[in-house]
Design a protein that fits this description.
The structure holds 2 protein chains of 2 kinds. Chain A is mainly α. Chain A has one domain. Chain A has 20 helices and no strands. In chain A, helix 6 crosses helix 11, helix 11 packs parallel to helix 13 and helix 12 packs across helix 13. Chain A starts with a helix and ends with a helix. Chain B is an alpha/beta fold. Chain B folds into 2 domains: 199 residues, 3-Layer(aba) Sandwich (D-Maltodextrin-Binding Protein, domain 2); 109 residues, Periplasmic binding protein-like II (D-Maltodextrin-Binding Protein, domain 2), CATH 3.40.190.10. Chain B is 38% helix and 18% strand. In chain B, the strands form 2 sheets. In chain B, strands 2-1-3-10-4 form a 5-stranded mixed β-sheet, with helices on both faces. In chain B, strands 7-6-8-5-9 form a 5-stranded mixed β-sheet, sandwiched between helices. In chain B, helix 2 runs antiparallel to helix 10 and helix 4 crosses helix 11. The longest helix of chain B is centred in the last third of the chain and has 22 residues. The chains are: A mainly alpha, B alpha/beta. The interface between A and B is large, with 54 and 53 residues.
Chain lengths: 496, 337
């Protein structure tokens, strides 16, 4: 493996043009990942036709690098302005933005930079070591029932994130699930709650909803404070997390790598579920759950480690089996095909050079996150010095553009503002915005896999428990649910 | 299900190549005068599906070919969702000035067949070209030991008493679900269809043994066929295409129904200026013949049967498909509006 890696590295850095493509991918991915609405997918779609003129290894490598750095890029705006660049960065905002408000932006951004790099590098190393056996294990053992069980587990944990009481936490999750049912059902294609509006048949898109619930509602909250004279500008902090602070979170990092890797390896799942599941696991294992959603470093660490850990993992089913895990990896299939190649078992035999250039590039791209991230952070943090009256319209303009640009639908802008108003009102009442967003995102994935799973087990729910991984996940979810309920009842009695 | 009648000519038309070609690419005029300077800026192509899927790829390939030919850039605007209805609605609301074109698939025809208030692609739009026409197949894993061909598969499925599974895109009224209905009725077997709307989980389900078979079009699983991982056991087409000469057709296996085809094409508003429409027809029909597009179609198994329809051929294909779907839906007891 080391020999192959060194050969891949030599091929990557032995040609100035290939280096140029690598640097372009690193910087482009970070930039497009950071701007809401204009995601790494936008960049990839723009670049797709141009890859025909590149060598196959250069084209595939470019997309792999964009995937790594684009997944990290959205963390910065999530932390500083409550604007996740893309859905996989939404859990980063849960605690990252409250940290900014508490004057700990440097710590949050520093942790995001470091943990994105750690997650990505770890994932790249596992990818190099065991792509084929892992891919084969995943497709044989993980099907729709297991993915549903994973989502069920995640939803149970979501209820304890950020709400004033566990009941409001559950209400928040249910609101998210309700929103997730809008649009065509994922299996039968039957329209639900679209009130005759064609655009709603596609459902509520994640990005406008996330921008509304996070960015717009936050502007309303801050504007209210400004109007009532209670507004305090966030202090700009350049203090990075210390080594000891990070070392204290080593278990969280390890757990997030595992969760991220597990979610990333599943075809069609990818980094978004990885980040949400990892955040949920951080909450579940914490002794101080009530601190999550209020500016806990572990929240940022968990989300950012996992979403980058998913990038290397998502390459495993793509390269070993030809199964893309998400939209960007699906575009990579097109890059392969443009050069008369097919990702899958044959590519390891026919084009080992290409594979190792890609592996090496992903390793170095994640390393670049660390270097460029540290360099850029000190500059970016100064954006917080912009006065609120200038910053708020800027954020609203960015968010509006981000909401519209994804699908070019005015409906999405309306959804964003409506989510902003609803989010503002719900926050005042002690409901949890993170739990709503978790419900929305996990709800769509969960419903689809539940329906597919039920078809597979011939509508016999008991069969779910005959599948070991599925049974373990459901049992763990039920135990967590019972424990949360018990805790809620006992705390209600105590306070009474 | 009763045999669907009145559409036998459809497959004959497919084999004959519609109104224009049979497999060879007739290159039209090498150039075409721009009517009144049109187009003097980039065209916009609305694509009702994501960039990574079959529609996204064919849209990219055709846009590249037309740009190569004419020098006019084409911006692709993806509006996925609602089985293509979101993109169609957005397109119908776009200015009918010839600068906006639409990519769409046979879903637009089946949607109109079910609900006539939705646009009819042959009447409310003008087809510029249909550039991909393909058939479906049933696949199993090559290393499968429980069955090896269609007869042994049917026998095995029947022995499972409805517990056998096939991965599919089995949304209500879809080509896949309707065709599977034909197959189960004709073969007398019961099989559970598992609906996966994305390709990767669908193919992974077969590779990993989560399902027993897969219903798909050959171009979408070409890499698995080339890698020897999937094997077709049934072709749902009236004749054996040369590339699948060893795979029996549904008719050979005693199933007497007219196959439904998957097709993708490009459209413009019916009320767009006529001279601009003529230029667009030339550009897209000639674009089909560009080497880059032909290479793309070849890589997708889209040259196995004739994939080309000019405007008249496309209208004929769409009209026949709508009639066929409408009859099927009525036979299925669906509420045809």
């Amino acid at each position: 493996m080391i020999e192959n890696f060194l050969a891949g590295s030599a091929a990557l850095f032995g040609d100035p043009f290939t280096i140029g493509i690598f640097v372009f991918g690193v910087v482009g991915g970070m930039l497009f990942g950071a701007i809401p609405g204009v995601s790494m997918l936008t960049l990839a779609a723009i670049l797709l036709p141009f890859t025909a003129g590149l060598e196959p290894a250069q084209g595939v490598m470019l997309f792999a690098v964009i995937y790594c750095t684009g997944t990290y890029g959205g963390a910065i705006t999530a932390i500083l302005f409550n604007i996740p660049g893309s859905a996989e960065n939404a859990p980063t905002a849960f605690d990252g933005y409250p940290m900014t408000q508490k004057g700990q932006s440097g710590k949050a951004v520093g942790a995001a930079v470091l943990c994105s790099a750690i997650g990505g590098i770890a994932s790249a190393l596992v990818m190099m070591a065991a792509t084929e056996p892992l891919a084969n294990w995943a497709i044989r053992n993980i099907g729709p029932p297991e993915i549903f069980a994973l989502v069920f587990f995640g939803l149970v944990v979501a209820s304890s994130v950020g709400a004033r009481t566990i009941w409001k936490g559950w209400m928040s999750v249910l609101i998210g699930l309700l929103i997730a049912t809008i649009g065509q059902d994922p299996v039968g294609g039957i329209n639900r709650y679209n009130f005759g509006m064609t655009d709603l048949a596609a459902g509520i898109a994640f990005i406008p909803a996330i921008l509304g619930f996070f960015a717009v509602s936050e502007i309303f909250v801050q504007a209210e404070k400004k109007a009532s004279g209670k507004y305090q500008a966030p202090k700009v902090s350049m203090t990075f997390p210390s080594f000891i602070e990070l070392w204290m979170h080593k278990i969280a990092v390890l757990r997030s790598i595992l969760v991220g890797f597990f979610c990333g390896i599943l075809p069609g799942i990818g980094a978004t579920l990885a980040a949400f599941m990892s955040y949920g696991e951080a909450v579940r294992w914490s002794k101080n759950r009530e601190e999550f959603g209020k500016g806990k470093l572990e929240g940022v660490i968990s989300a950012e480690t996992a979403n980058n850990a998913a990038t290397g993992a998502a390459m495993i089913p793509l390269l070993a089996l030809g199964l893309p895990g998400g939209a960007l990896t699906a575009m990579m299939v097109a890059v392969f095909q443009m050069h008369d190649l097919q990702p899958g078992p044959l590519v390891f035999m026919l084009s080992p050079d290409l594979i190792w250039i890609v592996f090496a590039a992903m390793f170095y791209a994640n390393l670049s996150i660390l270097i460029i991230g540290v360099l850029e952070t000190k500059t970016i943090l100064n954006l917080l010095k912009i006065p609120f009256q200038f910053l708020a319209p800027l954020i609203l303009m960015l968010a509006t553009t981000g909401a519209y640009i994804g699908r070019g639908l005015v409906l999405d802008v309306m959804v964003m503002f409506l989510a902003g108003i609803i989010g503002y009102l719900l926050r005042r009442s002690g409901f949890s915005i993170p739990a709503i967003v978790l419900g929305l995102i996990l709800g769509k994935i969960g419903e689809q896999n539940f329906a597919q799973g039920m078809q597979m087990v011939h509508y016999d729910l008991g069969t779910y428990f005959s599948r070991p991984i599925c049974a373990i996940l459901i049992a763990a979810g039920v135990i967590t649910l019972a424990s949360n309920m018990y805790r809620a009842f006992t705390s209600t009695k105590t306070s009474a | 299900m009763k045999k669907i009648i009145g559409t036998a000519a459809l497959c004959a038309a497919v084999l004959a190549g519609g109104s224009a070609f049979a497999f060879e690419c007739k290159r039209g005029e090498a150039s075409f005068d721009k009517p009144g300077g049109f187009p003097e800026r980039a065209l916009t192509m609305i694509v009702p599906y994501g960039p990574a899927g079959g529609s996204g790829q064919v849209a990219a390939a055709m846009a590249e070919a037309v740009t190569e030919l004419t020098g006019i850039p084409i911006n692709r605007d993806h509006k996925p969702g609602g089985s293509g209805t979101v993109g169609m609605t957005a397109y119908m609301a776009a200015p009918a000035d010839g600068y906006n074109v639409l990519e769409h698939i046979d879903d637009a025809s089946s949607a109109h067949a079910l609900d006539s208030s939705l646009p009819n692609p042959a009447e409310d739009l003008i087809p510029l070209v249909v550039s991909q026409v393909t058939f479906s197949q049933v696949y199993i894993r090559t290393n499968e030991t429980r069955f090896s061909d269609w007869p042994s598969f049917v026998e095995w499925v029947k022995a499972q008493n409805g517990k056998a599974t096939i991965a599919n895109v089995s949304k209500e009224g879809s080509m896949e679900r309707v065709t599977m209905g034909f197959i189960t009725d004709a073969s007398g077997m019961q099989i559970q269809q598992i609906s996966f709307d994305k390709g990767a989980p669908r193919y992974g389900a077969l590779l990993g043994g989560q399902v027993d078979a897969l219903f798909e079009q050959p171009g979408d699983v070409r890499n698995f066929l080339d890698a020897g991982q999937f094997k077709p056991i049934l072709t749902i087409f009236d004749e054996r295409p040369g590339a699948f000469a060893d795979t029996p057709t549904h008719r050979e296996m005693g199933m007497d129904f007219d196959p439904l085809l998957r097709f993708r094409g490009f459209y413009v508003h019916a009320d767009a200026p006529a001279d601009r429409v003529e230029w667009l027809k030339w550009a897209f029909q000639r674009g089909y013949c560009e080497d880059s597009y032909q290479a793309f179609n070849d890589s997708k198994f889209m040259t196995v049967i004739d994939s080309y329809r000019d405007t008249d051929g496309a209208k004929d294909l769409i009209a026949r498909s709508i009639d066929q779907y409408r009859e099927v839906y009525k036979a299925m007891g669906l509420d045809v509006k």
